[in-house]
TrEMBL record:
Protein name: LysM peptidoglycan-binding domain-containing protein
PROSITE patterns for the chain: LYSM, TRANSGLYCOSYLASE
Family affiliation: Belongs to the transglycosylase Slt family.
InterPro entries according to UniProt: LysM (IPR018392), LysM_dom_sf (IPR036779), Lysozyme-like_dom_sf (IPR023346), Transglyc_AS (IPR000189), Transglycosylase_SLT_dom_1 (IPR008258)
Organism field: Flavobacterium algoritolerans
Cross-referenced SMART domains: LysM (SM00257)
Domain LysM intervals: 402-445, 502-545, 565-608, 640-684
Amino acid sequence: MNIKNTTLSFFLLASVHLFSQETVVNKDVVKVETKLSYLDSIKKTFIKDDLASCVDSLWMKELTNLDLYNNLSEDIKNINIDQIVDYELPTALLKERLAAMDAKSPFNIEYNQGLENIIKSFLKNRKKSFERLMGTSEYYFPLFEEALAKQNVPLEIKYLAIVESALNPKAVSKMGATGLWQFMYQTGKQYGLKIDSYVDERSDPLKASEAAAQYMTNMYKIFGDWDLVLASYNSGPGNVAKAIRRSGGQQNYWNIRKNLPKETQGYVPAFLATMYIYEYHKQHGIVPNRATVKHFATDTIMIKKQMTFKQISDLLDVPVAQLQVLNPSYKLNVIPFYHDQNHYLRLPQEKIAVFASNEAQIYAYTQYESDKREKPFQIEKAMAVKDTANYTIQKIALPKTTYYKVRRGDNLSMIASKYDVDVADIKKWNKLKSNALAYGKSLKIVIGADLTTLKKEPKTELVSSEKISSNERIVASEMKVNKEEKTKKTPQPETVVSNASAFYVVQKGDNLGSIAKKYDVTVAEIQEWNHLSSDNVQLGASLQVAKKVSDSKEELVSGPERKDIEYVVLQGDNLGNIAKKFGASLADLKQWNNLPDNTIGIGATLIVAKDEIVINTNKATVSSFKKKTNIADSSKKEAIDYYVKKGDSLYSISKKYPGVTISDIKKWNGIRSEELKPGMKLKING
């Protein structure tokens, strides 16, 4: 036994010694400082006050719980007030209490068997519900009483919110009635309650209570009886008016009750029973659940920038559930900011103090959160580049590289079409000498690489930088121009195309027309540059699609100005001889000038040619037009045969050949109408 005790003592001493060593070692360990987040760094700067905020989570759950609303609504809808309820409440005592209530209330609180039955039903089956409701009402009733008193409405109307919504601002009926006072959409709009994507003021305790008080005032002016006002609030004034007619003109609620809708028949008795239970709850052993936060312990602050409940919760350490209860009108848990309207945030008073003391930091954090969100068409950097040659502003998408793994059946044309790039570019990026592809090969694809080439300048200067999209950049070039030179600007070429990019590999589905449109040239030019005798092109063929730039410097001369030619009608003119003078048809002149017939007036200005070369004249004369015609004739090229394609028109064909007009094509081919058929042969420059 002694040996055992000695051994145990030894082990205990050894354990203490080892523990002491471990403690000493741990003291020497350097603590790693955790990096603060932006939120923590903001909150670290907050001015602290000594007010404590302790909100009972059970009470918050109570305010958002819909079971009371669902159960109470079902009871009122299906209650049979003619059914006798067994509950220990002497009828004589009940009559005495109802008479006392009637003496100090504008409502007609008279004893009847139906009212006794519903009071006993509530006391027997709904005691726990009323304990919970009385706790919640400590928050809402002062607010209701203030709104009702302003409109001189009986304060007892506050009990109606219990019957309507069980004091749940988020309650929504099957018919769509919403909020504490269960306003329908149209009625809410009629009484000035704002309803949009962010806000539904039918759930706002203050504004909805004001609207309910106004409604009661209006209905009292019609019926002059508060019992009938309550009935009209539930079923509408039209149904109450019908019940009065069906009852032979009687205007007491209990006399017309049988002619009201079924739900309304139990509505006013439920209201009076609720009023009785609140008045005599102590006598029936009902102990209210006390609310931790009362309405007067909260306050509001105007919001100056849009923010979410999540942001407010993170900053002020207020549960999102509590923010929802205190601010039930915000549907998406977002407080919006409109320039023409103010929105308010309700918080416990001590949190209002924190918010007001730290507004700058709070809004800085919300802005930081907003900036983190991805935005459409965002640009990341802006650079201004000084250029001594010309002034242009170009928006350039920076290239993005991706890779594509070749699958069975793929070809270069399909892959190029998928990524909206050229076959020639794919071959260049991957150093391919032919169009053949190996199955499983990874191809490099550069998206957004088809950019206009900018000439390199000797000096560039970065003058500004601001946050825009990571895949876009604005490059601006600025030229200093003397005031004397501003009136005489030499036209500059818009794009410079290098010899290397002047060729195009024909892909599946291509034709000369589509290729010409893509590179903004004419079919005739492609045929001339590639010595083609027809419109047929071979798949995979390499075509020159831009005129080669020579090494020698050539002076760039702008083309002649083109515009419509106008003619002033002289005495003796008629539409026929004017058409003959200018080589146009009567139909053209009528169409160009919107003429319903051949009648024209002296001095009228007529368009006699469309899109013609102008020769230093504003109004055309026969002689000036002939000069223009002679110049055009002198610059004629060799006649070209053009075959009409599907979708062609005289206008689109004339645009393909510089200096050619619709009138020219008509004259050269002896046609009068503008109808063309695919395959039709036209002479150009003939």
